[in-house]
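Summary for the funding panel

The consortium committed to producing paired sequence-structure records for every protein in the target list. Below we show the first two records in order, beginning with the earlier of the two.
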Amino acid sequence: MIKRVILSLFISAFLMFLIPVDGQKAKHTFRLSPTDFLLDDLPFRIISGELHPARIPREYWQHRIQMAKAMGCNTISVYIFWNYHETAEGVFDFSTDNRNLSEFINLVQKEDMWLIIRPGPYVCAEWDLGGIPPYLLKIPDIRFRCMDERYMAAAERYIARLAEEIRPWLITRGGPVVMLQIENEYGSYANDRAYMKRLKEVWTANGIDIPTFTGDGPTTYMLEAGTLTGSAVGLDSGSSPENFDLASRMNPGVPVFSSETYPGWLTHWGEEWAGRDTASLLKEVRFLMDNNKSFNFYVIHGGTNFGFTAGANSGGKGYEPDVTSYDYDAPINEQGVPTPKYMALRELFESYLPKGKKLPKIPDSIPAIEIPMVFMSRFTSIWDNLPQALKSVTPSTFEAYGQDHGFILYRTELIGHKKGKLIVTDIHDYATVFLDGEYIGRLDRREGINSIDLPAGKKENPVLEILVEAMGRINYGQLMIDRKGITERVTLNGMTLMNWEVFKLPMDWKFVYDLRSSGRVMNKPGVFYKGNFSLIETGDTYIDVSNYQKGIVWVNGHNLGRYWNIGPQKRLFCPGPWLKTGMNEVLIFDLHTLEAKPVTGVKTMK
């Protein structure tokens, strides 16, 4: 009898061990055949919609997943941003707010969908530094995305930590995660084959026992440098028979799919809103459907580059910082509303369903509200909130001073030359210049402006101040080593200026919380404005900052991101969960505006 009881307890404990956690379902299998993805040994076509948990308020994750399903997707694809989860060197966060990946994955499974994970280490994604942590830029000769020992030590630490989070959710353990990407578009960047192979080995060593894939443009050189034997081939994008045939020749024996089919496109500051017409998109999707190709919409819903997360490009126009909105002209817009493009794709997918089958009902949109005019008042200035200065013989970068984002003020006395041509080599990325407290002008990396004519000062030794804003770090191409601030030196008529005071202004939560008003009124740009408004109900809104010039907006302590009057974006998305019934607060820091002006909340971005 006792033996039977012990045996029964042992079996019960063993069965409990086998039960997937958090309500996960019975195990399935997912593997690669030479031509197809196989789910439970049957051919499976992936129709995926890309979402980025970091860009979507946590409260809206389930809604956006349901929206993708209702459009016709059976899979969700996610980028995971390394620098969003390793918030400081060796410090990881996978539990707070938008960083709780387990919660997101659980929601995907609850909606009976599959999940593709794209963890980098490099992801691009129009995200600051392509997801790589800025602390690595403290190393003067660091090289990214290769077998540089310093980079690889950090990348392998990240992979090991991330593997702990996703391992319980693999399809091999009853979860929804079917496939993982190795790096991202590596063939566009470099040709270190040892690096790509090592990344795959590290994932395997950390217990990630699901199929892998690579993603590259459909060209011979990109596929040769970027693909891996035994990993499926993703094409960015795959839009013709020739694309798929080339990939099959370059890396035979594995399935090929379109890992990024683009329904829209990204937008930089100073441009018109980018987009893609629906007719050409539908034609491309019909080709994929008619030829039984798997594909992933990049992106089905973009969300928002809250805070300082937006990246930048460095194309033929030079430095091109990305706007705060990541609307992307996607089928689901920034606020989560289905667009005409969404409805057209949904209709197309429904036409391929078996007779009598229907797609799920489209979830209701999140309510949007208007906020009447909020009268702002001058609160304080950056000049009244300077921290203790650091001493620096010559100015250096943000990263050298241990700062990732925000602003830094550089200050020195002029000895020798007192006026003339001031050159900053180089400015990253935008600066306002002052002499004896008077505004002289601006420097702008985007426009290639790194010099200014200094007039004669009023003092024997005039005081020069350069307030530098760090915008997005370059996230694609060969110029990703993109340090911020003054990256080399400052000269006046060819003379190098020495002996600087450096004031770190990270504009993070603590800095903003500690702001204090001195009661002084200074006619010196760099002012914080504050306003209050009361709500009887909450909902999504867009804070219209058309009356302001360049800066940052916070609502109830949440950083909505950057604005700039060069456009095209003049309204910043404020999610409903960040508002509250009763009194709310909006705070604006503007680099140029010297007079308080009202703001409003409106229902749409445009």
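The next record, for a separate protein in the list, is shown here:
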Amino acid sequence: MKSRSIFIAITLVLFALVFSQTLWAAVVSGTIESVMADKRKVVLKLSGDKPKQVFSIPDGVTITLDGKAAKLDGLKEGQQMTVFTSNDGNVTKLTARAAKVAPDPSSTPTEPPVSKTKKTKPSTKSDESVLESNGGDSPQFRGPRRDGHSGPGKIAGSWSGPGPKPLWSTEGLGEGYASVSVANGRIYTMGLIANDEKVLALDEKSGRPLWGTSTGGEAFKDGAGNGPRCTPTVDGDRVYAMGCFGDLVCLDAKSGQRRWHKNILKGFGFRDKTTQWAICESPLVDGDKLIVTPGGNDATMVALNKTTGEVLWKSQVPGGPAPGYASAIAIDVGGVRQYVNFTARGVIGVRAEDGEFLWQNTSAANGTANCSAAVVHDNHIFYASGYGTGGACLRLESNGNTTRADEVYKTREMQNHHGGMVVVDGFLYGCNEKILTCLDMLTGKVMWQNRSVGKGSITFADGLLVLRSEDGPLALVEANSQRYVEKGRFDQPKRSNRPAWAYPVVANGRLLLRDLDSLLCFDLRR
């Protein structure tokens, strides 16, 4: 009996080793120095002073060139290539990009070249001009920079009596947990009205409905709450929104007229009809690209032409993670622009230029629901989830056109379920389940904790944190890293019988609270 137990234990260990080697992959990127198709070998030149590497390519390995299936003899010297290997060094996948051809200096064009892509200044967290350029508007999920910071504008430093002054309220928005975006005098949100999933526009000053346009998607109904979860993204004269079953629409911001429609689940080989609690992602606009994360068999993340909906690139992350419930952010690290999102398996980074996979980390992911967007500070990423998991901080470092992510620490003191986090002056604020917590983001040190408000969602405005408890009450708290200082609280009127999960929005001196069928507006100005 004892020998049998030892045999079973050894077998399980061997199985675990084999499984881990097939699940985890090493990734090497560089420039192709030579291809020996007859010997099935590729020589890769790495950046800096690193020695070149020779890879043997087994038969049947997936090879792509500019996102399309290719053969080994189709790869050429000078092309950029990423090699995916198992831990034992066996190549499992090759992805390559065609080398850019330099213009012939001897040719003289008769007309100046026309740039098809408008170069835009990176929207990094440290770039205050992003906030300034949007005025007090909040044109997308979690504010102008997608980091939970509101635009410029003074608000009252405290709430007294019944709280801030109510300005207006409106009803008829239907079911759903979508928050709101604000741009150019209009408010945009989503709702399920009579089984019709709609994108809605309202007048910012009065809350008066302006238009409602159907996504064409199927109605999502669930015991945790019916209706859409996406907050529309406003970019100039267009609005982008995504329904619960992946129906992505581009609408005219003034009229609501549909410009184009694409279903990201049907278009990219999604393995199931939807995630358990529906698609919750709010689309990201970056320059001419529209970024979404279908998590399908064909593409983990995709970039679309924001004007036409045409696919610009598809990015498949090793392991093929399904989507989580978070929304992507754009960051710059050492000159490498990249898109970061929290999938069902972990946080990932892909290169903005072409979708090339850069890095991933699974330490702070749980197996149930990964919801909160990652936050960035000083080339560090922090992401977290609930269900007893907690958070992890990663240090990002770019070399050439690639980026690596090294884990700095893990912590159970930020089990952030779905209320989001904000970083102010290097300190991270968010709900560790029912405990509002302040961490030193780069070290993980707990600065303070407070239980008085309870679990909720958070936003930052004019030096203050607005915390909305999922039970309804709101608190105004100093962004003070040394201690908890509350500046007032009030109970939201007209509460529904559902959790208050829609994030609070501060825009143009007003506080906007979506609560299923209702939207309430309060005056926060001094």
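Regarding this second record: The two ends are 78 Å apart (CA to CA). The helical segments are 2-23, 128-133, 264-267.
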